[in-house]
Amino acid sequence: MAKPTGEITLAAQPVKVGAQWHVVGTYPSGQQERITGFKTEADALDWIANDSAAWLEKRLDVPRFVTDPEKLETEIVGLL
């Protein structure tokens, strides 16, 4: 069963691709994004349980208008 959060759904079970494990995020449009680089299934499951909220928050965060040009670089880096 998938773990729904906002509009993006994360697969509750990672998939093995070659020597790596991936977690699949699915957007409402059906487009999928793979979170890669996990060496073990346990690493992927740990990321889902403990770190996926920050990943989701970044994708759901709407870019905002920056009024101070000196803060522009900080704002852009924060969105990456």
Can you describe what's shown?
By secondary structure, the protein is α+β, with helices and mostly antiparallel strands. It has one domain. Helix content is 34%, strand content 29%. The chain has three helices and five strands; from the N terminus they run E-E-E-E-E-H-H-H. Strands 1, 2, 3, 4 and 5 form a five-stranded antiparallel beta sheet that branches. Strand 4 and strand 5 form a beta hairpin. It is globular, with a radius of gyration of 15 Å. The two termini are 29 Å apart. About 6% of the residues have low confidence.
Please give the number of β-strands.
Answer: 5
Rounded radius of gyration (Å): 15 Å
Total helix count?
Answer: 3
Mean model confidence by pLDDT: 76
Low-confidence stretches: 62-66
Distance between the termini: 29 Å
The proportion of residues in beta strands is: 25-35%
Structural class: alpha+beta
Short description:
This protein is an alpha+beta fold and 80 residues long.
From the structure above, extract its key features.
80 residues, alpha+beta, five-stranded antiparallel β-sheet
Topology:
Elements: E1 3-5, E2 8-10, E3 15-17, E4 20-26, E5 32-38, H1 41-50, H2 52-60, H3 72-79
Antiparallel strand pairs: 1-2, 2-4, 3-4, 4-5
